[in-house]
Design a protein that fits this description.
- There is one protein chain.
- The protein has helices at 2-24, 26-46, 65-76, 92-97, 111-117, 132-156, 178-208, 210-215, 221-249, 259-283, 287-305, 317-323, 327-341, 345-369; strands at residues 54-60, 80-86, 103-107, 120-128, 162-170.
- By secondary structure, the protein is an alpha/beta fold.
- The longest helix has 31 residues, at 178-208.
- The chain starts with a helix and ends in a 6-residue tail after the last helix.
């Protein structure tokens, strides 16, 4: 009996040892208990496809009791945040191009008089359909508010009245999904390829010991690192061309803006990603670590915080602030603005400047962190 109990005692002794090993390792505990909590909070609370706090522009040409009541009800809704109220409809297009608003509502002149005398009126709803899901949700919300007001009117007056929403979808009248996903996939593909391949190629030289040989060559060490990234710049430009060709000829997503400007912005983003890959390669020692950091560190932020999967406006303020340091967020805005909205550099200069600033910051930090000696 004692002989049979001995293997079990040894087994439980090993189990006890493993428990001690796990409980003493703070990084393991963080992964075991911290990651599930973080994922539940992020995916269940912060990241949602539900639309709220959408920017709304009011064009009130009526300024009567009916328009004011509808505007009051819209303001009370948690779905909308009234960005501005103007009287000139010509300013609507500019607001959409700059990305200031997601929806515009135009109340025609004599709205209340038309309801009282003609028993019928029309309200125009204009949505940015470059994100078709958000546009559909927002127009449905506004239409529901208008129907509620119409229902209350019909309860008050004996004559039935009708308010007809005139819905207009800008940039994507057919509500196709491709105009929203092509810029996002473009940012995702370039981010992963450029960062991953650059980081792995440089770390591989460090692992095999050939980096020390390169560093003692006559060329400056910084130029050695940049030379490793240059091929991936040209290969990534081929990827950009491939994505654009597939988008135009297969997915029927035209480039409404300047193709030269789009290529220039793509080049800037590729350089940003290559610089980030260089930074990761300097901070890591093995290809496995470089691959893990590149994939997990770039894939999740790009998917979660670029704006093409989850509306950033729905997130808590800390996550909204965090999204500002994600390069793919700014590139996604730039590509969507050029391809779908057809805007020029005067509209996207701020996003371009931010992307350029991130590139310079990563470059100088990488130079400061770079050590000529590998030991």
């Amino acid at each position: 009996m004692a002989i049979k109990d001995k293997p079990m005692k040894q087994f439980f002794a090993f189990v006890k040892k493993e428990f001690y090993h796990v409980l003493r390792d703070k990084r393991t505990l963080l992964i075991l208990f911290g990651m599930p909590v973080a994922q539940i909070l992020i995916f269940g609370f912060a990241l949602t496809n539900e639309v709220k706090n959408a920017k709304l522009l009011i064009v009130d040409q009526a300024k009567d009791i009916s328009s004011q009541k509808i505007i009051t009800e819209i303001s009370a809704s948690r779905y909308f945040e009234i960005e501005n109220a103007i009287s000139d409809p010509n300013q609507i297009e500019a607001a959409f191009q700059k990305g200031i608003i997601h929806l515009a509502i135009v109340f025609p002149a004599n709205l209340n008089r038309d309801l009282m005398h003609l028993h019928k009126a029309q309200i125009q709803i204009i949505a940015d359909a470059s994100d078709p899901n958000m546009a559909t949700a927002l127009t449905n919300y506004v239409s529901a508010i208008i129907r509620d007001y119409e229902f209350r009117l019909n309860k008050t007056f004996s004559v039935p009245m009708q308010i007809l929403p005139d819905i207009r979808m800008l940039y994507n009248p057919q509500l196709k999904g491709a105009p929203n996903f092509v810029p996002g996939v473009m940012a995702l593909v370039l981010m992963l390829i450029c960062v991953l391949m650059t980081a792995i190629s440089i770390v591989k030289e460090k692992e095999t010991g050939t980096m020390e040989i390169l560093l003692v060559s006559p060329i400056k060490p910084v130029l050695v690192i940049i030379a490793k990234a240059v091929p991936y710049l040209f290969l990534s430009l081929i990827n950009v061309a491939t994505i654009l060709l597939l988008s135009v000829f297969v997915l029927n997503v035209p480039v409404n803006g300047s193709l030269i400007l789009l290529l220039a912005e793509s080049t800037l983003f590729i350089i940003t990603c290559l610089t980030l890959g260089i930074f990761i390669s300097i901070k890591t020692k093995t290809q496995q670590v470089a691959m893990l950091v590149s994939l997990m560190g770039m894939l999740l932020p790009t998917v979660l915080f670029s704006g093409f999967m989850f509306p950033i406006e729905n997130m808590p303020v800390p996550l909204q602030l965090l999204s500002n340091i994600i390069p793919s967020k700014w590139f996604y805005i730039i590509v969507k603005s050029i391809m779908i909205k057809g805007v020029g550099f005067s509209v996207i200069w701020k996003e371009t400047l931010i992307l350029f600033g991130i590139t310079l910051f990563l470059f100088f930090v990488s130079i400061k962190s770079f050590k000529i000696r590998m030991t």
